Amino acid sequence: MASLGDIGLAAAINLLSALTFLIAFAVLRIQPINDRVYFPKWYLKGLRTSPLHSGAFVSKFVNLDFNSYIRFLNWMPAALQMPEPELIDHAGLDSAVYLRIYLLGLKIFVPIALLAFSVMVPVNWTNDTLKRSNLVYSSIDKLSISNIPLGSNRFWTHLVMAYAFTFWTCYILKREYQIIATMRLHFLASERRRPDQFTVLVRNVPPDPDESVSELVEHFFLVNHPDHYLTHQVIYNAKKLSSLVAKKKKKQNWLDYYQLKYSRNQTERPTKKTGFLGLCGNRVDAIDFYTDEIDKLSKEIELEREKVIKDPKSIMPAAFVSFRTRWGAAVCAQTQQSRNPTTWLTEWAPEPRDVYWNNMAIPYVSLTIRRLIVAVAFFFLTFFFMIPIAFVQSLANIEGIEKAAPFLRAFIEIPFIKSFIQGFLPGIALKIFLIFLPTILMIMSKFEGFISTSALERRSATRYYIFQFINVFLGSIITGTAFQQLDKFIHQSANEIPKTIGVSIPMKATFFITYIMVDGWAGCAGEILRLKPLIFYHLKNTFLVKTEKDREEAMDPGTIGFNTGEPQIQLYFLLGLVYAVVTPFLLPYIIVFFGFAYVVYRHQIINVYNQEYESAAAFWPDVHGRIIFALVISQLLLMGLLSTKEASNSTPLLITLPVLTIWFHRFCKGRYEPAFIRHPLQEAMMKDTLERAREPNFNLKEFLQSAYIHPVFKGGDEDSESEAMSEEGEQEPVLVQTKRQSRKNTPAPSKHSSSLSSPLHESADKHLRP
């Protein structure tokens, strides 16, 4: 059976690998040649210059200051020095709040661990239940609830601790939710002017035979928001145009590469083969070939751009509508615009860099079908992965392997091999199986039709967490139990099986400890090393870079990766809350992860990551909800476990815990969540009033005119309405015109939408254009 010494050796292996990564990082980060890899954020902000431009030749590439090698861990205190308000200014509220998730873990689990080790570990250890049983167990299991005899009064200790842990967790969650909500409102109130503060996305614009989408949108908002409507930008289906632009960019990269190659050696012009992957076909001059290809694509792009602009079928029934004030935008985004609740649907527009343009052309009516298809696909994906999970769990127990393959006993019993199998192999094998999962889930989210990168990441994170819960957590417990206790299941009566499962649940703590060490400890150290960006940067810098702009594009700062990082953190919350009462020995490993990860990711956010968008911590309700879910699961599992321990007297008291937890969640949802989904009109009016007083002559229309133009149109010829947007809005009032032939003097809906006959409609066109 596994001992504490085996786990200690396994922990040493993982600590050694993490320390190796940290030492490599400490050496690589201070080399001048790697400066852009480990400090790209400062270069993108223009606050750091390359050390390669000054000093002796050798010192441009290698750091000759040996004192800096001695202080190889000085990056840790440096990462903690920047105050949170300065961090928010530097990296944004999303990044600062993301770091608070790690602090939240420390706030919850450090007190819980102290209480658990002071009270529950002695209660569990001072029994010999497992020693007198014929179950497969480890020394760690002797510290768990499995070592308490059936029907013992000691289970009251676990019941009281469950209540204490629940109340403490809820207290910390409420306090943190309140702090984050306040931070969000303060951030929005103090933030500089942004286009999304004045803009809403309008979808499902009803068709009209007499007016184009652009004219219909303008007409509708001039009539219904006459004092606040400013301008709008219709949405084009530019998928083909986008693919042509991407293709041209790829060809341009190859042309730059061959031109650089020729500039370094002008004795011979570079050539390439025109066939498949450059492996076959005629050999031609590479520079001439790509020059001709780019010229052809430029002409195609120009033709396609004109086609998209002029073809009414390329205009989607949606638009970005901007208002004169934040108050006007807030009213429009948070109210129903039409008596038909399925048309003129409004929502806050994502900030321009957050817009996922590829999904803007998806018809709104198809979204429900798409989401149904993805839900079915995700169901099959989740349960398909149970097969490799089952195989991985068979590696998590030495005794299980020896029973299945007795001839390997001598080899497996070698101390190093045994520790490697138990402490490293299962976790790394599971991680390999999960390596492609985030990409698959992101593809699913894109197919669903979400129109912002932040929404895509939040949906992917939700699915990733569900997958982790079913496969990594439940799959590990259930499948592991079957492998460990298969022989016992066969030779016992059916009514004994629930007891065997109940006892075996805490026995999976050994596997989860190794998973935390591999995925958490070594994973964080690997994240800060940035081996992949390091290799790719130097390859690009050697073969493709010829200007400073090229060198800047070769940097890969990356982002936080909310869709992968947050579900992983939530798995540790789940493990900590489930095993806090069952096997407290797991808690120190989780605490080490949260502390180490906080330092690592704080360093990365300050020096490396360049966040693609700013949602003002809109993801926090998801974070809060998943921790509540983990808390309820821990309570239900404890209830099931105690039912197998003949501690039925405690069941009525345990039922109260999930009820109280769900009530607490509903309280927080009603009290704090509105700050994350709606914008108070009071805050909007205050911000508008302040800005009018400070900048009375600011030209907002000019500020907004190109904010939501599709990127493929920027830099090229814009359509007539885009040109019209640049005109000054402060003109003499004119009547709102309509092209309807059937009702020349009314803005009432066309025959495709509902209409009313009333005197109000006859005079509605008299509203003045701003």
From TrEMBL:
It comes from the Eukaryota. It is a multi-pass membrane protein. InterPro entries: Csc1-like, CSC1/OSCA1-like_7TM, CSC1/OSCA1-like_cyt, CSC1/OSCA1-like_N. The chain crosses the membrane at residues 6-28, 101-125, 155-173, 372-396, 416-443, 464-483, 571-601. Belongs to the CSC1 (TC 1.A.17) family. Residues 197-359 form the CSC1/OSCA1-like cytosolic domain. This is Calcium permeable stress-gated cation channel. Pfam families: PHM7_cyt (PF14703), RSN1_7TM (PF02714), RSN1_TM (PF13967). It is found in: Membrane. Keywords: Calcium, Ion channel, Ion transport, Membrane, Transmembrane, Transmembrane helix, Transport. One of its GO terms (molecular function) is calcium-activated cation channel activity. Residues 715-770 are annotated as: Disordered. Residues 9-176 form the CSC1/OSCA1-like N-terminal transmembrane domain. One of its GO terms (cellular component) is plasma membrane. The keyword Calcium applies. Residues 718-731 have a biased composition (Acidic residues).
